[in-house]
Amino acid sequence: MSASRIDALLSQMTLTEKIGQLNMLAAGFSVTGPILGGDASGAVRAGRAGSLLNVFGPKSVRDIQRVAIEESRLKIPLLLGFDVVHGHRTVFPVPLAEAAAFDPSLWEATARASAREAAVDGVALTFAPMLDVSRDPRWGRVVEGAGEDPYVQSLFGAAKVRGFQGDDLSDPRSVAATVKHFVAYGAASAGRDYASTDMSERTLREAYLPPFQAAIAAGCAAVMPAFSDLSGVPMTANGPLLNGWLRGEAGFDGVVISDYNAIAELVAHGVATDLTEAAALALKAGVDIDMMSGAYEQGLPLALERGLVTLGEIETSTRRVLALKERLGLFDDPMRGLAPGGEGAGALLPEHRPLAREAARRSAVLLSHRHSVLPLSERPQRIAMVGPLADAATDMMGSWSGAGEAGECVTFLQGLREIRPDCTISHARGVGVDEAEEGGPEAALALCREADLVILAIGETRDMSGEAASRTGLDLPGDQANFARAVLDLGRPTVVLLSSGRPIAVPWLFARADAVLATWFLGSEAGHAVADLLTGRASPSGRLPITWPRSVGQVPIFFGERPSGRPASDGHYTSKYIDLPTTPLFAFGHGLTYGRVRYASLEVEPKRPKGNETITVAVDLANDGEHLAEETVFLFVRKPVARVARPLLELKGFNRLALRPGEEARTMLTLPVAALAFPGPDLTPSVEPGEYEILVGPSADRTQLLRQTIQIEEGGS
């Protein structure tokens, strides 16, 4: 449909039908907000709903699309959206876990597979990826994004957009991506979901806006504003950021979709007295689609009568919605992508399981390892696998698991038994995640006493992270800590599988266990992937995309903090705690492998680069261990002296390579001088002359980094 055809369609539409295109109703199988959906066929038939969420599956989609294209007056197809966050039927690792792979090609591949599965189920729009920089692990939604760093989030967002949307949005195997939550939702006060955010313009521009800029450059079709307010202005009504930065400065030309019931919540925010004012504020700020609040349907006609909005403003948003439907090819094929017959996404499961297994293997992070307990001995062993998450299929999926089915998930117990049938692997829960186990822990402890090795699977359930799942503590829920101590007191070699959607601050566990593997929520192939790692079929390669604190009292904690005039030291009047070090338990980028990698000979050229040049960074690596090592090499920069104090470290690149035992290799990273730009005192980005440090190593732990300096001359940028 061309622009002229959209104009012709607009000329035929009543006000109700124009507003109807801006109305998204929930009418399907998943509960994703505070208002339950129901039968939307009447609203679709009357032209009062242009979009639906949570409807999927060939039969359901055909039935509701036929209402739109056969029974409504103007025959406009529906836009059907669903939360395809980390998979559809095939569940891939949760985003925070997958970010640990530090591989944009993997991120793109899993999004592509997810899009294919969603498309054959009739989904045309996903509410992903989430690009909220998150530096407070108390916030439940930290699990949905790529962690604390804006550079990583930018790469993650661009890769996911490419994966979901493909080269052509009209391809029936593609779905439109909705990047969210614009903007600064991840900095919610006290880590409490939906709470207010307050930050400087500098922090907003340096840390929180860049991922959205990258996603827009990658061509994302839609953007979703955050529920929260920023410095007193709710994002759903924030014209300066939505119409100003997003549509103006960043050049976004797609559709802005409110979050679930967010427009009506402008009344609760205290910026609107009723739905009419709320609808007017959101529309004028640039929000095109009202998800499930009814504010546009009920409030816009009155707002138009009262002069709060214009018909032109309504039509502008209607035009954007119709244009997205055109880009998706819905006018030409309302049933785009639907699988023939009724098999839907299930037909693609066998094809995508190997990718799910690979993604899960590469997302797990070996946090600690002592006494060479891993990989497991090749000889038969008696293994006791205990803990509430050893055989918990549902929890393998994590939050926002789409159309995933627990029966299709491989648990840790199943995976290890399948790969090591020669071992006697006994199992007992011993304790619940946050409830008592019937019969108590004695049966599990008895198994541990008789075992050659104990595998302890503990952590959070999948619903303990995600939306509306913030926590005040970062400890093990329930009585798991006491159970873990009882297991460790037995003195048996013990490997911990720690499942969670956030860092769990349990220093004592890392000090006592022989190995701890962060297994996050790894999805459909969790059990096979973890068994691969435990047995040495694969070497751990995941690296932390978020700083892991010693205590919740350190939060928020992140590697990109700015220097203090009184840095932490043994002196009294310094920036420190009196009861704990200021350093994290594990730095950003931390992750062990079965090898032992040594860094040497950092070289940086040229030493005095000009503004249009690219810096080449080379470092030698050697694997001095007895096993394969898969290493991620991080490139950081720092400007020690600048007009505005710069962070202690800024991530500018990373590279991955595998080294066989005894192998040596040189890895190269490139850094355009333009990437050294930062906002000056007037917030205008530029490359400031002077000295810059180039730092390379395995994590953001400054004690492990090699360092060289370069000099940018005055006028060289």
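The record above closes out task 2.4. Task 2.5 opens with a second protein, given below.
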Amino acid sequence: MSASRPARGIAPSSRPPLRLKYVEAILCVGFALAFIVWTYLSAPGPLVPCAEQHPPAIDALLPIPDTQPRSVAGQFAEAFATFTHPIIILGLIAAWVVYAYTARMRRLSVSLAIAAAGIPTQFLIALHLAHPAPGSAFSDSIAAFTYSYPNAHITAITLASWVLVTLARAHHRSAMVAAGTVLGYAAVAASAVGQWYMGQATLSDLIGGFLLGAAFANLALWVGGIDAILTSWVNRRLSRSSSEKRAAVIYNPTKFDDLSLLRRRVAAEVRAAGWRPTVWLETTPDDPGRSMARRALEAGVDLVMVAGGDGTVRAVSSQLAGTDMPMALIPAGTGNLLARNLSVPLDTDAAIRLALHGSRKAIDMVTCTFDDGQERFVVMAGMGLDAQIMESTDSGLKKVIRSGAYAVAAVQNAVPDPFTATITLDDAPPVRRQMVMALMGNVGTITAGMTLFPRATPTDGMVDLLLANPGKVVDWARLGAQILTGQEMEGFTLTRARTVLIEADRPVPFELDGDTAGSTRTLRAEVDQAALHVIVPR
């Protein structure tokens, strides 16, 4: 099929299945109110008048057994209570918070952090109510707590069970969701039986612990924006209606620690949208995405998703420019500059959903002609200092401190060699200038949200140009102020044109979208207006 045919995959009617937006909020408020009412009715302490300082009637329904610590059942119950100690569960959830964040599941990491906060909250509530634990032979156990309401183990295990199911859903495995749900309920029940059997909690303590844990679990779902389990199954049923739409994913394997996770996440969203199975195309060190983009065009897909950094985005977009094929971004690099400038979320799940349900926008690309050839860029290009910084940036350091690695490289190149060049803008007379850097931008914002070109937009048909020759500390300070404030500073040439020609007096290093491209004496940039179709938020 022709690459220039209309992209069926981005029709405005492609809407995600209806979500039960308020389920988490209703459940959170419901469980929280239930916990407050239950606490008032059943928990001796500051909330109950002194005349009512006696065991709640409900506890008489399940009297505490006289369990011997050295019995087989007693030892088993104590071992289970130790294994599911709230401190251990808190540590495990905290570890998953870090994992979710580094795996670019930002909303999930927020939800898990809120869930983890339920454990110290339980401790503070128990300390305030000061309801002593029932006396038992296990009072000196490491798993025993001084105060029993709400029960710490049940609160923690309820949150852990929710985390188990949520993580299973994050991996998009139906079998894992079902198994996690069963295991979660079983763990809560086993913990409740164990706490009661050891004499560490009464029935009212256990119910209070569960209500508090359930309230925090649903608060995490509500604030984090993750669909409730019920919603996911509703969406799965709705997704069985199929269409002929199909996407291709061009991905850089070096940008993902768990490629199988990426595949599962894409497959789940594609299935929920009713699209056909995805075409997967992997880049190589020798080909960052050009031939893969051509293969996607030949396959007649409706959408090309690019999962990688700025280099992968440039390689793919250079092949899609001039066609009607839309490109969607799944940011996975250090800078992700195009994604940041187009308000594409850096969260992987959110970016995948946007790719399938966003709207098309035509943006400019810029064709650069240099001594040894011709390339396109979509974000920025430059000669001199910026290229030297890119070349000096340690790739291993980028993985550790990300954009901070560029700052380290900038310090290493703090005393750059100036060069002289003739600058020609459109049909204006040439101007000869000395500089340490000539930077051209199709967009205005660089790493960390700093604005380098205040007027630049990728749809204005212009390329912005910054010429800098800082000779003193104050000049560097002005350049830094310009970047931080987004305001033009005296002493720096900042202009724009449709065509820019830079002719240097010697070969100068240059870069395209953050990738060093060698050295050149001549660099000509010409805007290809509205050449590339990108998926952006509605």
